[in-house]
Amino acid sequence: MPIQTFPTADEDDVMSLDTLPDIGMGTFRLKGDTARDAVRSALSLGYRHIDTAQMYGNESEVGDGITSSGIPRRDIFLTTKIWHDNLKSSDLINSLKDSLQRLKTDHVDLALIHWPSPDDAVPMEEYLGALQAAHREGLARHVGVSNFTNAQLDDAKVILGDTPILTNQVEVHPFLNNRKVVGHIQEQGIKVTGYMPLAVGRVMDDEVLNRIARTHNVSPAQVAIAWVANQGIVPIPSSTRPDHQKANLEALEIELSVDEMDQIDHLDRNDRIADPDFAPVWD
User: Fold this and answer.
1) 118-170 pLDDT per residue, tens
2) Can you list the domains of the chain with their CATH numbers?
3) Three-state SS across the chain?
4) Of 17, 30, 77, 230, which sits most exposed with the smallest number of CB within 10 A?
5) Which residue out of 47, 56, 127, 195 is catalytically annotated?
6) In this predicted model, what pLDDT tens digit does every residue of 21-49 receive, in sequence order?
7) Active-site residue, 56 included
């Protein structure tokens, strides 16, 4: 498929890409035709934010789903994440260019550092400097980080200077509210993106979430997404079924009461799912 370039756009088109949409379609673990079909389906239902990563091994399929969707590239907010093996300065730029080829586009709307360099093997100044260069070159409209601790985020802000950090993407779901990190990110005026909002399906079995779901005549998954979104966090649930994708999108319309939000807050048990051996020391 041909590379989709970014055509000349009017001011409204450009402004629409300056902030993260309220919800995104996550693609972790989606492969082959499943990934292509899921992306195409999500876009047809109204999603406009697609989230992928080099490590997912599906950028090519995500690009296929976008180009075959019929939705203009300029209307889609596309995020990819740079793996920690590619954090050396020249490696980062080259790997991002490779990502763009696989995604069949000349830019992403957001490039994230997927994880801080394990044991600081690559200095943050080096890889954030390269990310900043990618932004200047137009390879990424916005930049950000993922899985950064509060101290790492503070350091990143200083290093990037006048280049804004659009988001810190971190794990957030009812069993890991990550309150200390979420609060710190938001205090910096940075958007929080919450991945794994459904705790890989575990929310479906929780008694509190099921009780609240029955009150609203919705599913526990929708309650979990609403709880994330009600905090001003951008959820990026992953689903391959159009009916589930539609339900996840509709979850943004659910208004939870203060008491319901509090009940879900109390489900926190620091149940971290994404915790590889190279992860930083969490806050």
Assistant:
1) 999 999 999 999 999 999 999 999 999 999 999 999 999 999 999 999 999 99
2) 12-200+232-238 (3.20.20.100)
3) CCCECCCCCCHHHHHHCCCCCCCCEECCCCCHHHHHHHHHHHHHHCCCEEECCHHHCCHHHHHHHHHCCCCCHHHCEEEEEECHHHCCHHHHHHHHHHHHHHHCECCEEEEEECCCCHHHCCCHHHHHHHHHHHHHCCCEEEEEEECCCHHHHHHHHHHHCCCCEEEEEEECECCECCHHHHHHHHHCCCEEEEECCCHHHHHHHCHHHHHHHHHHCCCHHHHHHHHHHCCCCEECCCCCCHHHHHHHHHHHHCCCCHHHHHHHHCCCCCCCCCCCCCCCCCC
4) 230
5) 56
6) 999 999 999 999 999 999 999 999 999 99
7) yes
